[in-house]
Amino acid sequence: MVQVLTGHGCFGKYLHRIGRERTTACHHCDDPVDTAEHTLEVCTAWAPQRARLQAAIGLDITLPAMIKAMVGSKPGWDAVKAFCEAVIATKEAAEREREEDPSADPIRRKRVGQRRRAFARRL
Ligand SMILES: [Zn+2]
User: Fold this and answer.
1) Centroid of ligand 1 to alpha carbon of 122 (angstroms)
2) 8 Å CB contact between 46 and 34
3) Which of 11, 13, 76, 94 is the most exposed place for a label (fewest CB within 10 A)?
4) Whose CA is closest to 11, among 40, 32, 48, 36?
């Protein structure tokens, strides 16, 4: 939920900004810019999850409307949470696959390297 609300997470534009992606593009559709708003409101990859969210909180799923639904009721909170968890878990799994691909762009593998070095320091 924090990733969707802040935009700091598994989104092309953010990953590009922090040097982990060469472009801001979405890996799940053809859009040239992947942001939290794109993921929430536009990306075709998440249409089923978006439909479930809209069935629960209404057609307006902009960030302000989502926050209103979250604080408005427990079912609203649960619907937003379910959407964020399902979509972000899938996006993170896809990102991990891209990172772990041996032929991946080295900037994608940065985090894996940092994790390995941090693990090695603890040994
Ligand atoms: Zn997309």
Assistant:
1) 38
2) no
3) 94
4) 36
Q: Residue 58: which region, alpha, beta or left (left: phi > 0; alpha: psi -120 to 50)?
A: left
Give every CB contact of residue 80 below 8 A, 6+ residues apart in sequence: 1, 53, 57, 66, 69, 70
**Integer Cα distance of 34 and 30 in angstroms:** 10
Distance between Cα 27 and ligand 1 center (Å): 6
Residues of the chain with pLDDT below 50 are none
Amino acid type, 119:
F
CA of 7 from ligand 1 middle (Å) equals 14
Q: What are the pLDDT digits (tens) for 33-65? A: 999 999 999 999 999 999 999 999 999 999 999
Cα angle value 36/88/33 (rounded, 5°): 35
d(CA 121, CA 106): 22
C-alpha 39 to ligand 1 mean position (Å): 6
